[in-house]
Amino acid sequence: MKRVLYSLFLVASLMYAKDDGTIRVAGPVASISHPIFKMIDDDMLKNINKKIEFRLWQNPDELRAMILKKEIDFVALPTNVAANLYNKNQPIKLTSVPVWGILEIVSSDEAISSLEDLKNEEIIVPFRADMPDIILQVLIKKLGYDFKTDYKLRYVPTPPDAMQLLLLRRAKHVLLAEPVTSMIMRKTGSFPISVVSPTLFRKVDLEKEWGRAFNIKPRIPLAGLASLGEVEKEVIKEFNEAYERALLWCIENPKEAGELVSKGIPSLTKEAIMDAFTHVKFDFKTAKDSKNELNDFFEIILEHEPKLIGDKIPNDEFYSGEGN
To answer: Fewer CB under 10 Å: which end of the chain, C or N?
Structure first.
């Protein structure tokens, strides 16, 4: 009898924990996550009696663990990671794509203005075979060059490693993503680092180069939001609308946004976050409205590095996370 009562208590506890009125959102330190802190600060889901809790994921393995343990309801992540997880039968569906541009080559050479100008030059690239690296390789190939022979791509483990090489004048050109780009630009202008480091410039916008190379809009659907499991359509709708409002507030109030986000992610400075909101290409689009551009992007990735999206283009169900 005691075992039966205990089992009933355990089931009831689990049901209560699952429906405790909290929407759990996981995200990286990147700009895609930053509007979520405004959503939390303004209690933007109170009209449906929901609170928002943010959980930071540092790498794909941490994210997979959260998904397998069913710890989260929404996740902010690169679009290719969402496609990869979906194609590996994880219960994930895209809800929106807000981020369309974060990649730049930062250089100490003010004369640089295009990828062609970097031919035969060394470019420091963090995270070998990850999305930024593949985008750079695809661009070089599309422009008619060989990234193995015409360019000198030097790989380092992380963006901080790349930053260090730039700051110590051991490299001239580095591929970075926001908000890391804004972090390093701020560092080089502050004492005592400014005494040692070179003057740096934002020289090659990879999204603009992408548009030029493929003769399309200068943007890439890089990061999105997705729902996990069976999230109610009403919750998805309210979450999407709240995120869009929070994003617009951050864009219009970058200083205040920097102060707010830096409290939630102490590894980022408020100044870098503020700067990033003026450089990231934001454009909130639902999953349905992003589908064609995403499929075109995935087709290119499939040809060059298929494992990044799970070896195939996601089917239409992948784009149904917004509840349509």
So the answer is: N
